[in-house]
Write a structure and sequence with these properties.
There is one protein chain. The protein is mainly β and 120 residues long. The chain has one domain: Immunoglobulin-like, CATH 2.60.40.1120. The protein has 1 helix and 8 strands, in the order H-E-E-E-E-E-E-E-E. The strands form 2 sheets. Strands 1, 4, 7 and 8 form a 4-stranded mixed sheet that branches. A hairpin with a 5-residue loop joins strand 2 and strand 3.
């Protein structure tokens, strides 16, 4: 019986310590300058150094989250139909962190859409 227990323990793989997730997340909200949520706003993140593109849309209360973004330098943009585009260049996303990036769209602003994402 003891031999069986010893063999079972020897056959068990060692436990590995899992470190923190190196990927990061970007989250925030899209609202008007009056604070009204802008659901369906397109949020896109493009790496400045690698061919990486992440995209989502804000939910009914204007909130969005993009998970599993590798650390790096990115362009972050938000495109709200009827309100135009906001582009934030050179955003640094750090390993394992959650970056909060809100977008506020002003009424009466020139309503140009964001540039389309080039095919990679």
């Amino acid at each position: 019986m003891h031999l069986f227990l010893i063999l079972a323990l020897l056959a068990t793989p060692p436990v590995r310590q899992v470190g923190p997730n190196p990927a990061a997340a970007v989250e925030g909200s899209a609202t008007t300058d009056g604070g009204a949520p802008l659901p369906g706003t397109r949020i896109a993140i493009d790496s400045l150094t690698k061919p990486q593109h992440f995209e989502t849309r804000s939910d009914i209360v204007g909130h969005y989250v993009i998970e599993n973004v590798p650390p790096g330098v990115y362009t972050v943009l938000a495109d709200a139909k009827g309100f135009g585009c906001v582009i934030i260049p050179k955003v640094v996303i750090e390993e394992g962190k959650r970056l909060k990036q809100d977008f506020e769209f002003l009424h009466g602003r020139k309503k140009l859409g964001c540039p389309s994402v080039p095919a990679r």
